[in-house]
Amino acid sequence: MAYYRALGRLPRQRHTQLRDDDGHLFREELMGEEGFSSDSSLLYRRGVPSAITDSQVWELPDQSRTPNHPLKPRHLRLHDLDTGACPVEGRRLVLGNNDVRIAYVVTGTDPSPLYRNAIGDECVFVETGSGVVETVFGVVPYRAGDYVVVPRATDHRWVPAEASRLYAIEANSHIHPPKRYLSKYGQLLEHAPYCERDLHGPDETFEVEGTDVEVLVKHRTSAGIVGTRLTYATHPFDVVGWDGCLYPYTFNIEDYMPITGKVHQPPPVHQVFEGWNFVVCNFLPRKVDYHELAIPVPYYHSNVDSDEVMFYVGGDYEARKGSGIGIGSISLHPGGHAHGPQPSAIEASLGVQYFEESAVMVDTFAPLELGEGGRAVEDPAYAWTWAGRGPAASGGSTDDGGPAVYSNS
Questions:
Q1: For the domain with range 255-386, which CATH number is right: 3.30.1330.10, 2.60.120.10, 3.40.30.10, 3.30.420.40?
Q2: What is the pLDDT of residues 315-335, one digit of tens each?
């Protein structure tokens, strides 16, 4: 995100000496993307950022994934998912592939351990709750409706002020605004649905003293995703100043300006972020199509190249009436399967002028698999709701062996 900021104490020129009042030399650290070829920030530290005194295994929660086979659309009820209370260690994997993982957690009010994701950026949507995220760059407050974007390898911890429902999108890449919304120098353009005023980073530096401080690090090996518990000689929050274009920030969906049209607009107009092989969109309260013969709900569409994940977080989602989906639901519509509104929703939407709905969508260009958290809260009847009947109606059974209820109304 090429939007320059500077906080705290800095030398007049980069890579030159900066000392405290006693003559102590601060250590300069470059935190940069793509091997010195993309966004970066320079941090000035009291301690040595590479000084570790111990390294132990951190056993991650279950990261196993199950393919969506046999192929079918899925409905996952996240509000039925039991999670740990820790904003980091309590996350349960819902869906994932080798590009992105989606996890969910309902926190308590205790702070998380210090944490660093060394695999990729994180974009955490705050469904409910409030608090702050303490980082090496400073403190970032969060509230309901925020996307909290944390760059790869940023030491941070979550400090909830109240119980918070967090929907964590963990990338294997960087996450940034869509390129089509940016000038060649990185400014958000006039046709973008948000601008730099809507992005909120730290306002001041945040220093904490300490020795032998543990940091939980999520990283990759040839065996997959693993965790390490590193102990640092001094506290990672020892930054006295920094400047650059790489830092954590929040963006709230209230500040997103939906793009609408005379007829139904396709999902890319709702895009807010993108990463490698996936995009993030949000569908928000908005005026809908104003052609006299418009059909406001989506047309049926086949995701030839992608899987579509919708997380329903507010309002009344018109296209899904009669499907069993409600607030806190996830729908997974996989590539190779046409999907769209429930049959009765089409006629019911005619003449509607405004949709009061909120949902966060992740589209991936590689198939998504079910995590253990997703498997635990699946609605086995969802796949058959367009037809109104399924295998249980002809003597078969649902995935969990129980009865299914089907509806297309």
A1: 2.60.120.10
A2: 876 556 667 889 999 999 999
